[in-house]
Amino acid sequence: MRVAVVLPRGCGFRPDRANSMETVVRTLAAHARSQSAVTLICDADQATAPDPRLLTVPPGLGGRARNRRIKALLETLQPDVVEYHQQLKSASDLAAEGPPATYVLYRHTRIKPPRHPLDAWRYGRRLARFDRLVFVSEAAGQEFAADYPALADRVSVVCNPIAVEAWRADPADKEKLILFCGRAMADKGLDLFCIALARTLDAHPDWRGALVLGDWERHQAWADPYLGLLDRFGDRVEILKSAPLEAVRAVTRRAAIAATPSRVREALGLTALEAHAAGCALVSSGRGGLREASGDHALYVEVDGPDPLAAALERLIADPEARLALARSGQAFVAQVHAPEARAAQLDRLREAWTEQARRRRAEAPPRPRFSLPRLGLPPLGRA
Question: Structure pTM?
Answer without folding.
Answer: 0.88
